[in-house]
Amino acid sequence: MKNIKRVLFTVSIITIISACKATDPENLTFIDDREIYTNITKIRSVLNGVYSGLPDGYGDIGASWLAAACDEAEEVNNAENIQNFNIGNITPFSNPDAVWDKSYESIRNAKIFIQSTDTITWKEYQYSNPTEYASRIKLVGQYRGEAKFLTAFFYFELVKRYGGVPIVDEVINRDEEWISRFPRRSFADCVDFIVAKCDEAAAELPSTYDTGNYGRATKGAAMALKARMLLYAASDLYNQPSNTDPLLGYVGGDRTARWVKAAEANRAVITLTPAYAFHANYQGISTLGSTKSNEVIFERRYGSSNSFEKENTAIGFPLGQTGTCPSGNLVDAYEHTVDGDFDWSKPTHAANPYANRDPRLAKTVVVNASKFGKTAATVELFYGGDNGKPRDRASKTGYYLRKYLNEALDLQLNETSTKQWIYMRLGEIYLNYAEAMNEAYGPEGTGPGTLTVSARSALNSVRTRAAVGLKAIPASQTQAKLRDLIRRERQVELAFEGHRYWDVRRWKIADKAIGGPLKGVDIVKNTNGTFTYTPTMVENRVWNDRLYFYPIPQVEISKSGGVIVQNRGW
Predict the structure, then answer these.
(1) Between the N and C ends of the chain, which has fewer C-beta atoms within 10 Å?
(2) Which CATH class is domain 211-306+419-511?
(3) Which residues of 431-453 are buried (b: 16+ CB within 10 A; e: fewer)?
(4) CATH 1.25.40.390 spans which residues of the chain?
(5) Domain 1-52+99-205 indexed as CATH 3.30.450.70
(6) What's the predicted TM-score (pTM) here?
(7) What is the pLDDT of residues 339-383, one digit of tens each?
């Protein structure tokens, strides 16, 4: 009990916004402790501990990101665990992204919270202080909704990695060999479970919070998670016509109906009142700090630091260490505003590759001869330049990261700033809707009820908004062409936001977008001050189709006595 009380009195809302480890589950095992669950402040503190199990957006794998395990980026440090993905060094015994234990720990913590608050009546306030009674009843209902949302979130993290997983909807005694009682459930069952939890949570959650509660789950967050889950569920990976394994996807049913459900769920978020709205500045959405944006649907808030800036500022700048570097694959995807697709084979493009490009490129990526940092210093990515090869820890790709970096900080003075990680925002929801509508009704089609906006129109809402200002995609697109345009829009709009690694899996194009050549650019400064850019291959990455689903940790299969079965190919 002493440990419990120490945790409860020290955990605060900072638990949600700081990059801390999950609260020790042993410290949450107090189902019978009435002292905890008759104190509204302590109840909130316990819930904050459940939030701490959320993924750390600024460090998927050690100090790196899953972006560096697909065609978004390359990690400059070869010793980082993320490199195991790029050489195919993933096994049931060793997986740098093995979230099984952490997710089930968090699910257990959420369930303990829900079960422990189930019998709270606050009767002592019912007649003596009716106002306080009503407030507490409402607040605990909200907290339970938050715990249900978090349960759905943690299950989504499991399902997108492993396919169907055990659904453990009860509090398990940690000393019990429980795992043999819970075989894996079908992918369809898991989708239905996550959707149901989101619906339950949405019914209990408020639409907005005041300043001190940013980072908590809202009604919109629960609806957006449901919308994302349904989009995934309708995608290629889980709808293979030849699939006979219910753990790895659907084995029948109406796929078009799944796309319609995904469209309806995403449309419901777009039309929610009070409405979400696009942020006025594209780069600003990744550097909000402690401010609020009406585009953000669900976020994690962090304390003040500068570690991310140090880790990802280019070598050659004061205290810059370099980290995750954008790839040529990503940079080449940003369209040319005059000619459409960017193409290195066009002499005018190759001579000045960063002119007349989608404006989101300059706000996401640091390119040669651009300005960076508080002093607006010129970046020298050419061979022999201050920030270029062959300098140790220079970018392998010819690019550095700009997104998320607070360039106003003076790292030499150890200046810091607060950060947030956005799990869901309006831009994604529009693109989810566009994708689902295109697959269900084609580029211009609409559907029943609220599905009155076409796929192309939704796509153009993202492209033509004030923060981007691109030309609208014209009519007369084929379904296949618009599909490609939507996928490219997701690649650039949501760059480094944790989507690409999973998108290319669900689209079944990981053999090209994760495997194959990772591209970059070599740069030479000419005697007349101009530059010669030569596209190059940084590395040839390994892919095996069995990687579409992670291996179940072998220790879990062994503990279950074979009740939990391994994924195909492992």
Answers:
(1) N
(2) mainly alpha
(3) bbbbbbbbbbbbbbebbeeebeb
(4) 211-306+419-511
(5) no
(6) 0.93
(7) 999 999 999 999 999 999 999 999 999 999 999 999 999 999 999
